[in-house]
Amino acid sequence: MSPLPFRVTGAGPGLFRAVSIVTLIMLLFGGFIAISPAAHAASTRTTDNLNLRAGPALNAPILDVMVAGERVETTGEPVNGFYPVIFEGVAGFAYGDYLTIGGSGSGLVTGGGPVGEVNVVDGPVNFRSGPSTNDAVISVIPDGGLVALTGDSANGFSSIVYTDRSGWAHTASILGGSDTVSAPVDAPAPSPAAPRNGAGSGDIVSIIYAAADAYGQSRADMLRVATCESNLVPTAVNPSSNASGLFQFMPSTFASTPYAGQNIFDPVASANAAGWMWANGRRGEWECQ
Q: Where does the record place the SH3b domain (predicted)?
């Protein structure tokens, strides 16, 4: 009987032995590879808008853009700081600093918690990009501020939606307790900060595209205007006019948007503020068109 469940006409015993050995190796290693990701599978969430890339590098092609709060599955250990993940059925890599399992060291997200709108019991409380005190403060939620609980929690923080944006806040502060606020609500104008995702112009483009999609605007038009205004540098400041940030907002103009409580140098806030203005008939306020 042939050692394999098929027969090759005209083949000698040597060929059968070679094919048998190769097949055995493929089965052994194929089986190992098939179960290996399952051993590392874990659920996590994005803490900011984050690119899903084809490889573990910043120059790898972008497969998709995951908005803050998206649930993804990690399938292995990080490579160059990037975790292998599956997002909506697509396999790729995501930078670990912007996953709850990654840079913040905050552990996995747990579901099944309270869901629905509540008023902050013990404010003001920091509204953060991730579930730890090491994560960036997006804004400050005042006492009594209305937030929506999503049911997820991690490291003593709850996943919430506030002013139409996903983020995290200390659970005890929402339901009773405290989270030390790093700056008062009436803090002075913020100083320039590096792009929050630290991933270069490719991710700035992704942020602009996400804002364009959110407000029904042309991706190409918003990218062109931002490039003209700031050369895609979120910390850019015009010394003569004090126009600042990715879309070069005048402070008074930025204050007229729903994102007034956020950092004018935050590329996500700047792009969304621009998208909101465009959607409300104020596109003409930019010199670049």
A: 48-99, 125-172
Peptide bond before residue 124 is cis, with ω within 30 degrees of 0: yes
- What local confidence, expressed as pLDDT, does residue 95 receive? 82
Give the structural domain span for 232: 201-285
Q: What pairing do the DSSP bridges indicate for beta strands 125-128 and 137-141?
A: antiparallel
- Per-residue confidence (pLDDT) for residue 203, from 0 to 100: 73
Q: Is residue 147 a contact partner of residue 161, using CB atoms and an 8 Å limit?
A: yes
**CA gap 13, 279 in Å, rounded:** 74
Q: Which residues of the chain have pLDDT under 70?
A: 1-41, 102-111, 177-202
> Does 119 reside within a domain?
yes
pLDDT (0 to 100) of residue 40: 54
**Is 78 found in the same domain as 122?**
no
Three-state SS at 157: strand
Separation between Cα atoms, residue 94 and residue 9, nearest integer Å: 49
Helices (H) and strands (E) in the chain, counts: 6, 12
> What is the total count of domains within the chain?
3
> Given this model, what pLDDT does residue 13 score?
53
The reply to whether the predicted model has a pTM over 0.90 is: no
Three-state SS at 28: helix
3-state SS, residue 188: coil
d(CA 13, CA 27): 21
* Domain-embedded: residue 188: no
Chain CA centroid to CA 201, Å: 15
